[in-house]
# Entry
Amino acid sequence: MIVAGSVLAALILTIKSSRLVNFYDRWVHHKLGTQNNTKLWRLITFLNEPKLIAGWDVVLASLLFITGHPHLSKWVLITLIFTDLLGIFLKHTVKRARPKKTSPVRVGYSFPSGHVLSVTIMGLMLWHLFGKSGGLLLFLIIIATWLLVVISRLKTKAHYPSDIIGATTLGFFCFAIAQQLLVLV
# Structure
């Protein structure tokens, strides 16, 4: 938790104050190629919309509740709500403009990526809940989904690389806090 929090704090301070880091972030963003808004990347973006992930979170919480795990049900809901609220707070605190070639449909701020944050925290929760029974297959599915979302955010030019790093770090930070709270729920 301390490592993730420290990395996140350093990244936020760097984004807000370092022209050199912002220059390299934009340079890498530019070097990733032209905007690729194909149906595949739009589908991946849609399937991993933070609002849709929240819906899946409610389904997961409902299933946990029905199967006799009300404390895990509450934990799943509280973890995603806390993570999303912190992500929204950071977006409005850092106020980083989106890349210029972003789709006009995407409004708001860039840091951290809401898509990557949602898929990161959901993947961590799924692994925590089902990792022992799901094994390697579940692990590979979670990693593949995360990678597809990361690539989609970069291919559609919706985010800078540091937005992805920040969202991933924030997801791990929030998950570390959520694991501590699991004993209280």
The CA atoms of residues 13 and 94 lie 9 Å apart.
